[in-house]
């Protein structure tokens, strides 16, 4: 029986990126739909769960994507509400690459520092990737400063993350200039910059002037990058005692994690591959 992945994308056109990864993950048939909302997804879910018997439903799975993470979360919630009894399939949400990118970045950092004892900072922490980076770091027991241009947004994000984990410590901070961000980064042993494309948090020459920094990861590949002293392709390169990763250096792991997570959807018909599970996959990928 063929493995069918049904792609629910909240954007008008379904992502070609996610489609290519699905094919590379071994999906045999890919059904892709754009413009998906909680209001129009139910009929599609029923079409997925009523066409095969319960014992065969592990061969069907759902992937929720798109550029809007909140919209993806709402669609995934509705998909789960549409399941009942044994009539369900495994599902995964990775809108805007939020879960796979964050998991790959934190797993990379874990190779070099003890996350349970680290002082970490996440510039761009209220974005979809940044929030999940902060969540994963907190789940490992880290003390995390989540930075946004708006202190109110930072505080709101911290409050949401606290509801997902009982470990770690989250502190909200606001910074509207590169100098303010650099001041916040000083004394932090781990920096993971997760801002939007074109936002530079640490200008050229700033990284080497920070105290205590052991690992710096920049997740923006679009110039200007988030940390100017880190090249996009860098992977565990050392600069003045700081181990550095660029967006493409993390991206290779992210792609492996994405493919493996899609493959794992077909191991049962009742898995929900969430942030924590994707992080577990990332740790396995790096260890292998």
Question: Can you characterise this structure?
Answer:
The chain is α/β, with parallel strands linked by helices and 288 residues long. The chain folds into two domains: 90 residues, 3-Layer(aba) Sandwich (Rossmann fold); 151 residues, Rossmann fold. It is built from nine helices and twelve strands. It has a seven-stranded mixed β-sheet, sandwiched between helices. Helix 5 links the parallel strand 5 and strand 6. The longest helix has 18 residues. The radius of gyration is 19 Å and the shape is elongated. The mean pLDDT is 96.
Q: Which CATH architecture of the largest domain is right?
A: 3-Layer(aba) Sandwich
Strand ordering within the main sheet: 7-6-5-8-9-11-10
Shape: elongated
Number of domains: 2
Number of strands: 12
CATH class call of the largest domain: Alpha Beta
Sketch the topology as an H/E string, one letter per element: EHEHEHEHEHEHEHEEEEHEH
* Main pleated sheet: 7 strands, mixed
Spans of 5+ residues with little confidence (pLDDT < 50)?
none
What is the count of DSSP helices, taking H or I runs of 4+ residues? 9
Q: State the secondary-structure class.
A: alpha/beta
Overall mean pLDDT score? 96
CATH superfamily of the largest domain: NAD(P)-binding Rossmann-like Domain
